[in-house]
Amino acid sequence: MRLIVQKYGGTSVGTPEQIRNVARRIIETQREDCRVVAVISAMAGVTDELTKLAHKMSAEPTKRELDILLATGEHAASALTAMAINALGARAISLTGAEAGILTDRVHTKARIANISPKQIQELLAEDYIVIVAGFQGQSAEGEMTTLGRGGSDLTAIALAGALNADACQIFTDVDGVFTCDPRVVGDAKKLDEVAYDELLEMASGGAKVMQSRAVEFAKKFGVEFEVRSSFNRNAGTIAKEETPSMEDVVVRGVSLDRKQAKITISGVRDEPGIAGRIFSAIAAANIIVDMIVQNASVKGATDISFTIHQADLNEARELLVPIVDEIGADGIVAQSAVAKLSVVGIGMRTHSGVAARLFKCLGQGGINIHLISTSEIKIAVVVDEADIERAAQLTHAEFGVASPAPADTVMGPLA
Ligand code: ADP
Ligand code: ASP
Ligand code: MG
What we know:
Shape: globular
Structural class: alpha/beta
Mean pLDDT: 94
Low-confidence stretches: 403-416
Bound molecules: adenosine-5'-diphosphate, aspartic acid, magnesium ion
Distance between the termini: 36 Å
Helix content: 25-40%
Number of helices: 11
Strand order of the largest sheet: 3-6-2-1-9-11-12-10
Radius of gyration: 23 Å
């Protein structure tokens, strides 16, 4: 008997009718002679609402309590899904992340999975139960509730599929699969039949929220192949897997955009050992995630250092850097919010040249100014004004020929 792990995202369980639809799909899968473990996210919008409520209580809610609060969204949706399955005549039991054996470190709100002991899941499967698991959460060794970062139900599913050695892992969402760009931004974005882990990882960390980047990282590390597909139709989805030689033929697999970024420039920094270390240690100590870092060539012993962070961290970063700028004798600090990052991704870049030139030329012709540039072996990323990001994505998408008409039967759910 095959073992299938499925994950249904918030927009797939957004209403009672959608939960019943999910319940029917899960039962159908079981009737195809499969054992089913289904990971369920909070109903659409619930995690955001709970976060807003928390911020009404406190400007900086205690992270431990935030985890207890946010985990309830997944508790509710998974219990409702189990009820719907039972009402349709099959047998389901819902488990919290802790009951499912998901052990994490103790970093509240962005915990990492340390270990999985799915004993209870296995016992329930052996008794022919459909096992519903609340996504996005686990438990630390001290028994504290933790959550796995936004989009973390993807990670729950991938990690469980790995731990249970499942025959298939299916991520059900509100679009047909992974597209060449967010289909809500580029109307003619095309669904990919397959994508390499490394490509999806770059796309996800570049802002494509269709998969949580940590989930893709986990899948790559443990070789968990998975399919991203729609819960609203039966179309085949996108298979994420280890790369094959033919995948290099495609130069650009996808374009991602990441909004709400901020850029900080420290100017007139002495070009001496230890200075960058001083700046970035202070940022790291405040747990602020730095994305791109660019340092100019030194002119007369001084240089500029620019980097990007999430817009939400801008005030904190600026406050902690002002005294450091004084201490290291730099000229000043300039911060700019409302910038965004565009990433062009493809493993074909390893063997094809000229991608950067084409990207810059295309943005230039569109009158779009580039603030920062960074590259990896399979990615070129640029920071532009947030006001330009959608047009930049559309122009880039067209330039690299990843565009083609979306299939007529593509069904998209409501805007997330
Ligand atoms: P779920 O609630 O199922 O976890 P998410 O809202 O987290 O769903 O992710 C699905 C959304 O990701 C889509 O509705 C789409 O707008 C967005 N998205 C961004 N980039 C891409 C992409 N390259 N391919 C597909 N969807 C994308
Ligand atoms: N409910 C959580 C979130 O909105 C986890 C998830 O949906 O994957 O981020
Ligand atoms: Mg998601």
